[in-house]
Amino acid sequence: MTRIGFHASHEQFTPGELLELVQRAEQAGFDAAMCSDHFHPWSQSQGQSGFAWSWLGAALATTRLPFGVVTSPVGRYHPAVIAQAAATLAQMFEGRFWMAAGSGEVLNEGITGEPWPPHQQRSQRMHEAVSIMRRLWSGEEVTHHGAVTIEQARLYTRPKQAPPVYVAALSEETARWAGGWADGLITISLPHGRLKSVIDAFHEGGGEGKPLLLQVKLSYDDTDDAALAGAHAQWRFNVFDNAIAAELRTPQQFEAAAKHVKREAMSDAVRISSDPQRQVAWLQKDIELGFSDIYLHNVNRRQREFVDAFGEQVLPALRDAGSRDAKADHKKKE
After folding, report:
1. Active-site residue 105, yes or no?
2. For the whole model, what pTM was predicted?
């Protein structure tokens, strides 16, 4: 059955609060969790940006959930350092940690002052970084001169099994390109026609049979109006096409770009509803597309209410539906 996870947004909440929230999510019945990895928030009103890698150690140690992180392993980081961080988590918490590699945003990577390359170059250096990390996890001493430079690096603490590295892809082009080398795909909630196209492209590129992960952007609150207001207040800064979002350098620039985003426009990027059964219906359609893991990001600030309501109403409904489907499939095989 599809695992339903909780997304911890470091841009919106302090690390201490997020730790309490993932513990609450585990108690409510969520199966897994994941987090973002930012240096800056999308906006000043979000107002936070804790260090994901420190937090992941605490979260894994104080829950039994599997965890993942979406990160750029090159830019403000060096891939050898991320390989070491990921190896440490994977060694301590065997089988419970994964990571997804993205090409990054200047909002985060630009802090080094290095020139910001175009998208194709960023994608190529990200792929190069993943290859370096895998060589390090295998125990190889790595020297490499390319988009990334590394000299005689060897990891002495390694897990029994290297953590999977998925690709973060929003377009068919990126998904197809990564299908052959990524261990799986993670994308975000899009219209289902586009989601299917991204999945199909990943399969065409060599990803057939690999895990498919989805991060769902939703806004749940006591009323539809409150859910809409909360989404607009917290997430209007992140409704732009990735070609734009990857190029804006500061939270102030995101705020300026979002100045004229109207409330009504939020429903194009966020699933807004106060009705748990409406949320169930959306998620069932995602499950039908073949996603193995779905991570729920309630983009407004009402996190505790969201965790409790979904634990009581949404997760049981999805599991009941999954159990019925499994029984029906079993009968067909008989």
Report:
1. yes
2. 0.95
